[in-house]
Amino acid sequence: MKNSITFYQDINYYKFNNHKKNFKLVKMKVVLFNGSPRKAGNTNECLNMVMEELQAAGIECDYICIGMEKLHGCISCYKCVATKDKTCAQKDDKINEYIEKMIEADGIIFGSPTYVANMTTNMKALLERAVMVTLTSGNLLKHKVGAAVVAVRRAGAVHVFSSINYFFLISQMVVVGSSYWNLGIGLAPGEVNKDREGVRTFKNLGKNFAFVLQKMNA
Ligand SMILES: Cc1cc2nc3c(=O)[nH]c(=O)nc-3n(C[C@H](O)[C@H](O)[C@H](O)COP(=O)(O)O)c2cc1C
């Protein structure tokens, strides 16, 4: 008899433990970060569209708003290279807590509005420090699943999309796409819901993300 048997119920799966002679439920988890200072803004709407699809597939979601926090960028101290202890030496904000959540999750989604054709400062701070810590402590995000979610009024969103994807790619993660690049158009909070193609893009992204997670954990 094989050491492990897997069977599925939606995206959740059960693995047979040959020693204990029982099935263990394995639940998949995705952590989503919203880098907008507007908690109920367009990035939030877009992330919720993705999250609804993930939850419909039975995936647990942990949604975190970082847009109004005081977060620092990387200060180039290289202490994480020396310690390799999965943490950043700057301990006076919540970034270590967020890095831990990324390490524990099966999938990671970063959502940001477009600010001067780039991601927000807080999202950048998170990405800078998380990439240094996770790469130097042994490629801790390798083979996890990732996607970017971007809100924009008019232009610059594909640059944000690319910048976030560089984080996933250097982390050796699997990047999930959709029927268009993952962006939604709107200025005032909630306006993105009128962008029909954007809505379709985020719903498809959620479905694709669940599909890839399931295949990778088979
Ligand atoms: C400081 C700032 C810079 C912005 N820069 C751009 C930009 O470069 N291109 C653009 O199309 N929209 C820009 N916008 C508009 C936002 O990207 C847009 O309103 C987005 O929907 C906001 O998302 P949110 O509601 O999640 O914060 C900017 C908004 C602010 C406040």
Detailed description of the structure:
It is a single chain. This protein is an alpha/beta fold and 218 residues long. The protein has six helices and nine strands, in the order E-E-E-E-H-E-H-H-E-H-E-H-E-E-H. The protein has helices at residues 42-56, 79-83, 95-104, 121-136, 157-170, 196-216, and strands spanning 6-9, 12-17, 22-26, 29-34, 60-65, 107-113, 145-152, 174-175, 183-185. Strands 4, 5, 6, 7, 8 and 9 form a six-stranded parallel sheet that branches. Helix 1 crosses helix 6 and helix 3 (95-104) crosses helix 4. The radius of gyration is 18 Å and the shape is globular. Residues 36, 38, 41-43, 113-117, 151-156, 186-187, 189 line the site of flavin mononucleotide (FMN). Flavin mononucleotide binds next to helix 1 and strand 7.
Indicate the topology:
Blueprint: E1 6-9, E2 12-17, E3 22-26, E4 29-34, H1 42-56, E5 60-65, H2 79-83, H3 95-104, E6 107-113, H4 121-136, E7 145-152, H5 157-170, E8 174-175, E9 183-185, H6 196-216
Parallel strand pairs: 4-5, 4-6, 6-7, 7-8, 7-9
Antiparallel strand pairs: 1-2, 2-3
The structure holds flavin mononucleotide (FMN).
Flavin mononucleotide binds next to helix 1 and strand 7.
